[in-house]
From TrEMBL, chain A:
The keyword rRNA processing does not apply. It comes from Acidiphilium rubrum. It comes from the Bacteria. CDD domains: TM_PBP1_transp_AraH_like. GO terms for cellular component: plasma membrane. This is Monosaccharide ABC transporter membrane protein, CUT2 family. The chain crosses the membrane at residues 21-41, 96-119, 125-145, 166-185, 249-276, 296-316. It is found in: Cell membrane.
Automatic annotation (TrEMBL), chain B:
This is Monosaccharide ABC transporter ATP-binding protein, CUT2 family. It holds the Pfam family ABC_tran. It comes from Acidiphilium rubrum. Residues 6-244 form the ABC transporter domain. One of its GO terms (molecular function) is ATP binding. Keywords: ATP-binding, Nucleotide-binding. The keyword Transmembrane helix does not apply.
Length: 325, 252
């Protein structure tokens, strides 16, 4: 039967070509542009800085992409980003050590995800509203427990280096998480059911898929990724700041996913696309910083760049589909 | 009767004070196609949901292969070979055909990873076997026509070993050519002899064409039951008109 003549590998390549090619082109054009206008762009130290721009949004994008695919969003993830390293630090200050601190931070992150998911799924509050509420709630909580002051991130230099302070380590963590999440989305039932729940909620439920479990699980996953990213950044910077992360990192993560081809309407998306989306945003941020562009102008440029990237992405995608059928 | 696949005896269903079904009995034999006709509100959907285990009847008894059963859930009904193809099709548009064929019954390798290759191969073979033609099992369902989608949904139910297949308006909103494909598909399943099909229908002529037996429902009761070849669209419409006249007279 002709249905099986294409091998999986060919098929995969073809899909990649369709879904992510346009945004890869955008990323490459940006890299070429910045390396032409600024000789420092493609140098070791700058690539390291660039990798640090990309890593946090790429990690959080993995969670937001899973949520967007199953038809939800988490606006509060940037506040977990700020809270998690405080929980780790306070646990360490209490004499329980960094490891227990990390475990506690993950438990609290997972709990916040559970609350986000339960309110959204069981009490039927749209996730946009649920997580807007928890956004303020967690932010207030973090400011209260920290009294609004940053503290030094505990742990020695070795630990800090492993968890993101040295070289490309934070980026390597991001790549590891991206690879794992890509496998989860494409090669595990969890990922397939996440797509099914977002693509046809009634249909997925009729097929016996527990949609509540999938959604709540993805909320917990996103919160935990937010917590992990906050901890990595706290190690990298050496300071645990109650105002770190916030809506900025959340919007960057969502934008990374959407630029990478994840549909806001649910039912489709790719983790690799999210990584490329985060790269595009990182290149823009880093490139314009090198250029010495004014911070006010910078936001306008980022905004315009997101719009242009999205328009290009959607329409190149449409051309591809038109050419296929 | 050894060939009887399903019997529902004197089924009633009340939702609060409202009686949706007041004493419905039906049966379907192995390899038989039963067409259920009736207006909106006749109780067809409620009856379907009782047979699929979604609703529990207020009273009455179900028998499968002659044995009394009390369905506790949709999964329970499914484990007994009762599959339903709903109008909304339960297909995920953004997934390829082969993932839809195996939705929530995915094949996995020994590492617990999805076995895409095996699912692709088996889906293609199953569709071939059931007689559904698609360009490629890798195509997203969104790219298919309504008829193709219905065919995939039916094929999925058949492939999952349905013994009693319920079809909720399988020809709704379909052009003549598409409907023809689905009618062919239903008739091929009928010819196998081991699957019983219960279809909910609106179109009298199409129902007479496919079904072996017809059951007509109005306001929660059966108003006609008989062999398709012994009746006609006119005769069925006569019954409906008579019922309406009686209803109007009763209301005055």
């Amino acid at each position: 039967m002709s249905a099986t003549t294409l091998s999986f590998r060919q098929r995969g390549t073809k899909l990649l070509a369709l879904r992510e090619a346009s945004i890869v082109v955008v990323a490459l054009v940006l890299v070429i542009y910045f390396s032409v206008v600024n000789a420092n762009f493609l140098t070791g130290p700058n690539l390291q800085t660039l990798s640090q721009f990309i890593a946090p949004s790429a990690i959080i994008a993995c969670g937001e992409i899973m949520l967007l695919i199953c038809g939800e969003i988490d606006l509060s993830v940037g506040q977990i980003f700020a809270l998690a390293p405080f929980i780790m630090a306070f646990t360490d200050h209490a004499g329980l050590g960094m490891f227990v601190g990390f475990v506690f931070a993950m438990i609290v992150s997972a709990l916040v995800g559970l609350i986000n998911g339960a309110i959204t799924v069981l009490l039927k509050v749209p996730s946009f509203v649920t997580t807007l509420g928890t956004l303020f709630l967690i932010n207030g909580f973090t400011l209260t427990v920290s009294k609004g002051y940053p503290i030094n991130t505990p742990g020695g230099q070795t630990m800090a280096n492993i968890f993101g302070a040295a070289g490309y380590n934070e980026f390597l963590w991001a790549i590891l998480i991206v690879v794992i999440m890509h496998m989860v989305l494409r090669h595990r039932r969890w990922g397939l059911h996440t797509i099914a729940v977002g693509g046809n909620l009634t249909g997925a439920t009729e097929a016996g898929i527990n949609a509540a479990r999938i959604k709540i699980g993805n909320f917990m996953l996103t919160s935990m990724l937010g917590g992990i990213t906050g901890i990595l950044e706290a190690f990298r910077i050496g300071s645990t700041d109650p105002l770190a992360g916030g809506t900025n990192i959340m919007f960057l993560a969502v934008a990374s996913g959407v630029i990478g081809g994840t549909s806001l309407a649910g039912g489709s998306g790719t983790i690799i696309g999210g990584l490329i989306g985060a790269t595009v945003l990182g290149v823009l941020q880093d490139g314009f910083t090198l250029q010495g562009i004014n911070a006010f102008t910078f936001d306008m440029i980022i905004g315009a760049a997101i719009l242009i990237a999205m328009i290009a992405n959607i329409h190149v995608g449409r051309l591809n589909r038109g050419g296929r059928s | 009767m050894s060939t009887e696949a399903l019997r529902a005896a004197d089924i009633t269903k009340n939702f609060g004070n409202i009686s949706a079904l007041s004493g419905i009995s039906l049966h379907v034999n192995k390899g038989e196609v039963l067409g259920i006709l009736g207006d909106n509100g006749a109780g067809k959907s409620t009856l379907m949901k009782i047979i699929t285990g979604y609703h529990k009847p207020s009273s009455g008894q179900m028998f499968i292969n002659g044995e009394a059963v009390t369905l506790t859930s949709v999964d329970h009904a499914r484990s007994l070979g009762i599959e339903c193809v709903y109008q909304d099709l339960a297909l995920v548009n953004t997934l390829p055909i082969y993932h839809n064929m195996f939705l929530n019954r995915e094949l996995r390798n020994r590492f617990g990873m999805l076995d895409h290759g095996a699912m692709r191969k088996r889906a293609a073979a199953a569709l071939d076997d059931i007689g559904v033609q698609v360009p490629s099992v890798d195509d997203e369902v969104a790219m298919l026509s309504g008829g193709q989608r219905q065919a995939i949904a039916i094929a999925r139910a058949v492939y999952s070993n349905a013994k009693i297949l319920l079809l909720d308006e399988p020809l709704a909103a379909m052009g003549a050519r598409e409907a023809g494909l689905i009618i062919d598909l239903i008739q091929r399943q009928q010819a196998r002899g081991d699957i019983s099909i219960i279809m909910i229908m609106h179109n009298y002529a199409q129902t007479l064409e496919i079904a072996d037996r017809i059951m007509m429902m109005q306001r929660g009761t059966v108003t006609f039951e008989g062999n398709a070849r012994d009746t006609s669209v006119e005769a069925l419409l006569d019954i409906v008109r008579r019922e309406y006249r009686a209803m109007r007279a009763a209301a005055q």
